[in-house]
Write a structure and sequence with these properties.
GO terms for molecular function: dynein intermediate chain binding; dynein light intermediate chain binding. It comes from Pachyramphus minor. One of its GO terms (biological process) is microtubule-based movement. This is DYH5 protein. There is one protein chain. The chain has 168 residues and is mainly alpha-helical. It has one domain. Helix content is 80%, strand content 0%. The radius of gyration is 22 Å and the shape is elongated.
Amino acid sequence: TEVTERLEEVVRIWTKQIRQVLVESEQIRREADDVGPSAELEHWKTRMSSFNSLLDEIKSSRVKKIISILQAARSKTLKQWKELDSSITIAANEAKDNVRYLYTLDKFFGPLANASPVMMEHIPSLMNTICMIYCTSSYYNTSERMTSLFLKITNQMINTCKMYLYEG
């Protein structure tokens, strides 16, 4: 029972740390007002990396041994652990899915940033790709995510026009 209590304390500490990561990942991001769409891709790549690292740690042999010992002891701390494990898996899948879809837009980010204000040739393809993301993505098809993306694209278009005016 002494070993079980120590292992339960370890799992409680892990649970607290994982909850903190999940809470921080859900907080509203603070970004500059003129940030472009590349920042959205970078955000999700960073988030994907964080959650994949966390998943790798959870699936490590050390953690699995501790969890199996607690399962044999029928510990009550495992219910919370399983819920967190599920939440992390969902968050990692969301980040992976969003990165995959945002990469389809990546080819537009360069031309959008470097084009002249007559960037109309890129807009129809960009809008079609965004529509495809909205219709097929399991996670990125919310009005909140789409609004954020459109805002960043608009920011990039405004920055491109400003640069053109300053240089011209």
